[in-house]
């Protein structure tokens, strides 16, 4: 890892990490989207709405894996860049143990309160049975999701992004196969779809252990220990990623509640379709952030400032043009995206198509916001990273959801996230211009 990271061109190293990261994140999103496609076609719109209501549980587990995984992986790469391999291995072991313990605590607490939790997430008497079935499986086996994703982050940071990608591909393909078997062959309900996701994730985690067969690896388990100082530092650095995923849950809940208010059950069903499409697009932009995190962290530890500068510039341009491409894709193929998830009534279909065309404007700004958040996080400028995340996914979104629908109806709901992303991107641009002395990477 060391020679290529320090001697290959910055663009070559970036692409080497970008492509596996994008493919891996796309495969991860397929784990969720496949559930929606199979459930929507096999069990109908009500079941689809039920698992959409329960989906924030998956987001919370994913958030925890990113919180501790990216926090730990950032410190791991910094230690590798500084040539302190023993410290890097201690950080790896410490992080995985911390993730496992905290996941179990959260899962047990949520499991005991799963019925009121389902109602709080937007369930009603019609959708509650489906939401509870899906949620119960995730709460029981959610620690597998967190361990697999965090382990994947460390493998990527240890110079093996291709294996992380392979793990995600295996999980996605197996999830599709198991969804078909459980729903169509065994005729199971939404519980079968959730079990398919968990089982596929477990196999993906096993694949990652092949990394330990590499001779050039630095990653290794060492004698476990606990350090409050290391735990706090890990949690602090990874906190923006946690907030980002929690924000996704806030997004889902907020849009569900707003759609019930302004468009009824048809609106919730339409949003369910958009939400699955959004998960795919979101993972693509998250993949860009995941690609630069190991590089920025390593260059920080190795004090290779020029390479750090070039990396963030390339990533920002890539995110911007990718966002434009995704926006245009949504404009042209909105109808095809809706059809992918099932045969819906004309009302639901019309709402979903309109929503996709409006909502996809967000992607012109979202990619840059993700890249900059990751840059600030990987360079330990945590306050700036937290501000970006809180503003775009929680504060501004909620503000727009509470005001825009009163002015322009349902379109105001669809446009809440795009406007949030646009405002945050503009603020980042102004902030960087004013702070160019303290942020030389963007001069």
Automatic annotation (TrEMBL):
GO terms for biological process: response to antibiotic. Signal peptide: none annotated. GO terms for cellular component: plasma membrane. Pfam families: MatE (PF01554). It is found in: Cell membrane. GO terms for molecular function: antiporter activity; xenobiotic transmembrane transporter activity. Its main location: membrane. It is a multi-pass membrane protein. Keywords: Antibiotic resistance, Cell membrane, Membrane, Transmembrane, Transmembrane helix, Transport. The chain crosses the membrane at residues 14-34, 46-70, 91-114, 134-154, 166-186, 192-213, 234-256, 276-299, 311-338, 350-372, 384-407, 413-432. Belongs to the multi antimicrobial extrusion (MATE) (TC 2.A.66.1) family. MepA subfamily. This is Multidrug export protein MepA. It comes from Paenibacillus dendrobii. The lineage of its organism: Bacteria, Bacillati, Bacillota, Bacilli, Bacillales.
